[in-house]
């Protein structure tokens, strides 16, 4: 049916006239509902394509071939790129995966006159979008001369982690993010205003408190399928903001698992036609920002009397605050400056602080850890768009290798 005209009647409701035929009551109720609540969330055009049609093709047998999606970090230090190749076999380990290359001039990583970059497979996961036997392959990026790209922090992180392997460093990272329409407007927010003030949204339930749970549930299940060590999720303080937690992971696996969890989130949002933002302060004003709080422990801190070693770590961190601020967002602290204001459950970017159960401190010792005298501490400074390799490397350098000063040691 085609609408002939739209007009408002005396009550201000929308009446609809059609050239022929009648519409069901449910049709009119649905349309009126959309008119009243102003559903105009900007979504991508690809989200409107028929998923049922796509499913037909995705269910076709693929013979003995395997699709391997190679994933890497681009020149921004926070964006992800990917492309797929066909393998004649199912890889069982990283060693089974071939190196590959890509055009770095299109990813902010090289000039067009010398654009080839190398992809070095580094971690492999099951593919939750194409399903078994297909794979997601996280890669390091090397330049034409086989030296690491500027945003390849995995190489030095892995080296540092190997140096302290006997101390079994464990990490857990709490990744906050915001769901946006393709126009940058937060998902579920009124098109010409703001939702109610913060308060009912954190860990909230209900259509007026939890915005976009479908994304969260799909992402959680996809991570479990992939083999990502995801350990929880919750709605955050700002409406349309969520958090998932990855860990505990030992050493280099922390960065691997968090980057793949981010990639999966971007792909899930792509299917729904919306965007996941890791901006540390997506909405200015009296709204919470987004961080990536990092929990850290070692064999010594987890054993009896471990609080002593936690306090030693905090003393070392206090003397190296500026170094960590530079390592904790991809713009050397500029992104975090918008978030670490001393308000909205953050510390001030210019000051170092620590305390038990204090969410306004740089370093928080959980209350249970203070009581049991062992466990872990939480560094609340990393931004949502941090590179987990850079964050975990910085913590190990300062706390376990006892580095000081504003520059990392070149081992």
From TrEMBL:
GO MF annotation, one: glutamine synthetase activity
Listed GO biological process terms: glutamine biosynthetic process
UniProt keyword annotations, A-Z: ATP-binding, Cytoplasm, Ligase, Magnesium, Manganese, Metal-binding, Mitochondrion, Nucleotide-binding
Limits of the GS beta-grasp domain: 64-146
UniProt cofactor(s): Mn(2+); Mg(2+)
Residues covered by the GS catalytic domain: 153-411
Pfam families hit by this protein: Gln-synt_C, Gln-synt_N
One GO CC term, this protein: mitochondrion
Cell compartments where the protein resides: Cytoplasm; Mitochondrion
InterPro entries: Gln_synt_N (IPR008147), Gln_synt_N_sf (IPR036651), Gln_synth/guanido_kin_cat_dom (IPR014746), Gln_synth_cat_dom (IPR008146), Gln_synth_gly_rich_site (IPR027303), Gln_synth_N_conserv_site (IPR027302), Glutamine_Synthetase (IPR050292)
Chief location category: cytoplasm
Signal peptide span: none
EC number: 6.3.1.2
UniProt catalytic activity: L-glutamate + NH4(+) + ATP = L-glutamine + ADP + phosphate + H(+)
Class in the EC hierarchy, top level: ligase
Family under the similarity heading: Belongs to the glutamine synthetase family.
Protein name according to UniProt: Glutamine synthetase
Species: Ameiurus melas (Black bullhead)
Classification of source organism: Eukaryota, Metazoa, Chordata, Craniata, Vertebrata
